[in-house]
Design goal:
single chain, alpha+beta, Alpha-Beta Plaits, 249 residues, 2 domains
Length: 249
C-alpha cells in the first residue's frame, strides 16, 4: 500500500441550501457532500478538515480544506473535473493541490477575510445573498466605530457562548464599510475569527449607524467582554468568506 499524500482543496459555495460547512447529524452540510464526491472519485473513504466553519446560510467564495489519500497516483487534472461533476451546482472545486504531510487547512491559515453585504431596495436577485434594510445607516459613524474595534484583540463580547476555543483573541487587520452601486459592504480581515463574530460585529456597528449608540460606546462593549452588551447577530445570508491565505500556497 502506498503512503498517503496530503492535498489542499479550494472550493466555493452558495450556502443557502446547507446547514453550514461542518458535518451534522440529520442536516445536510457542505463538508458531507464534498466528502462523498471525493470518496467516489478516489474510491476510498475521505475525511476533509476545513479552514474554518461557516454557519447555516453563510456563503464562501474561497474556502480551503485538506484531506489525505492513499492513492496519490489517481490524481490528475481530470480529478477536479470528476469531483465537480459529482457536486451539486451550488458547490464548485477550484483546484486540488498536493502539500506537505503536516500542512493543516485550519491551523496554518495566516489570514481570513469576510464580506457582509447589505442592500436597500427590493431585489429578487439578492434573495438569500444580501441583507435588505429600509434605511441607509450612517456609514461615517460605522467606520469610526470599526477603527475602534481594530484597537482591540479580545473579542469575547462578539463570540457565541459555550464555544470550545483556547482564546478569544484575534488580530484584526482590516475593518471597513464601503458604499457602491447602491449597496453597502463590510470588509473585515483577521488572523482568525470566533464563531458568529462577524455577524455580531456587523449587528453592533449597525447600532452605531442607526445612532442608537455612539461610536465610543463600542469601547465599553468590547471591554465588558459580555456578548449580551453587543448588537444582535445579523442574518447569515449577507455573509461571505472571501479569502484564506497560507504561506505555502
Amino acid at each position: 500500500m502506498s503512503e498517503k499524500q496530503r492535498y489542499f482543496i479550494e472550493l466555493a459555495y452558495d450556502g443557502t441550501n446547507y446547514h453550514g460547512w461542518q458535518i451534522q447529524q440529520n442536516a445536510i452540510s457542505v463538508q458531507e457532500v464534498l466528502n462523498k464526491a471525493l470518496a467516489t472519485v478516489l474510491r476510498e473513504p475521505i475525511e476533509t478538515i476545513g479552514c474554518g466553519r461557516t454557519d447555516t446560510g453563510v456563503h464562501a467564495r474561497q474556502l480551503y480544506a485538506h484531506f489525505d489519500s492513499k492513492n496519490p497516483g489517481i490524481f490528475n487534472p481530470k480529478s477536479e473535473i470528476g469531483v465537480n461533476a459529482l457536486l451539486p451546482d451550488d458547490i464548485a472545486v477550484k483546484r486540488i493541490t498536493p502539500v506537505h504531510a503536516d500542512a493543516h487547512a485550519r491551523f496554518d491559515a495566516i489570514l481570513r477575510s469576510y464580506e457582509y453585504h447589505v442592500h436597500f431596495e427590493k431585489d429578487p436577485f439578492k434573495i438569500n445573498h444580501s441583507w435588505q434594510l429600509r434605511d441607509k445607516p450612517d456609514i461615517a459613524l460605522m467606520n469610526a466605530a470599526a477603527k475602534i474595534i481594530m484597537e482591540y484583540t479580545d473579542f469575547s463580547c462578539f463570540s457565541k457562548s459555550n464555544t470550545q476555543v483556547f482564546t478569544n483573541n484575534c488580530k484584526i487587520s482590516k475593518a471597513e464599510w464601503v458604499y457602491a452601486n447602491g449597496c453597502l459592504v463590510f470588509h473585515i480581515s483577521a488572523d482568525r475569527f470566533l464563531r458568529n463574530m462577524v455577524r455580531a460585529i456587523v449587528g453592533t456597528l449597525m447600532l452605531v449607524g442607526r445612532k442608537e449608540i455612539a461610536p465610543g460606546e463600542v469601547r465599553e462593549i468590547i471591554e465588558s467582554k459580555n456578548r449580551s452588551n453587543a448588537g444582535v447577530s445579523v442574518p447569515a445570508c449577507g455573509l461571505y468568506l472571501t479569502e484564506v491565505k497560507y504561506t505555502y500556497l
